[in-house]
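Weekly modeling sync, notes
Attendees: S.R. (lead), two postdocs, one rotation student

Agenda item 3: backlog of single-chain predictions. S.R. asked that every request posted to the team notebook include the full sequence so nobody has to chase files. The rotation student volunteered to paste the first one in as an example of the format we agreed on. Action items at the bottom.

Example entry:
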Amino acid sequence: MELCERIALARKGAGLSQEQLGEKLGVSRQAVSKWESGQTNPDVAYIAEMCRLFGVSSDWLLLGEENAQETAPARCPGCQTVVTGLDNFCPNCGRSLKGQSSPTYTLLLKGGEYIYQSPEDLCSLSGNALFPEDSPLAKPIDRERAFQLSKEAPCILARGLTLTQARELREKIKIIDCYSSNFFLFYRDSDGDKPEELADKEPIPEETLATPKEPMSFGMMVLAVILGVVGAIFLLSFL
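Predicted structure, as returned to the notebook:
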């Protein structure tokens, strides 16, 4: 699998369109399209940012190599074609992929005292591309609708989130208000589909949604050494 194919695979796995990825990177949709068609290659800075957005290492995105802490791209159990979390059926042989994909996650709004503050946070979160189409926050909402959702809490705000989407939403919630993290809770979809049922269970631990620190690849280590040598030579020139 080539670099262009890995970019497309990782982007789809993160639930982003070419336009949405372009917006996050500050480039046009056409630029992303050229990367994915192999017409051009992205600069190193864009590679690093895509690794962060997709939750993959530079070793995998650039070279297709996996380390012991990562999972190889999902493949159809029948024909071994590479598939994504967005595929319900194998695009090659048509085999059902239900139950073969990675775990997906639910975002729950907890009730309680937070009901009087949550409308503002819900308005800020709404309209984010990370929310699936069936989410009440998929499109921007006004304060009246946000307050109604708060009164319905506990209520489910999103289901079927990938791990990358859940991590990004968690970070956005923290940016809005660190206190909010206690009331926006994440569960695995398999934990249940009723908000009251989920509210009685322990949510996913914080460390599960923490963005893993990517180990420095060999190429990056070489670059760091080169920069260090150049810096030392520059300083010595003034002595």
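Discussion: group reviewed the output briefly. Residues 105-209 form one domain.
Action items: rotation student to repeat for the remaining queue; S.R. to check formatting next week.
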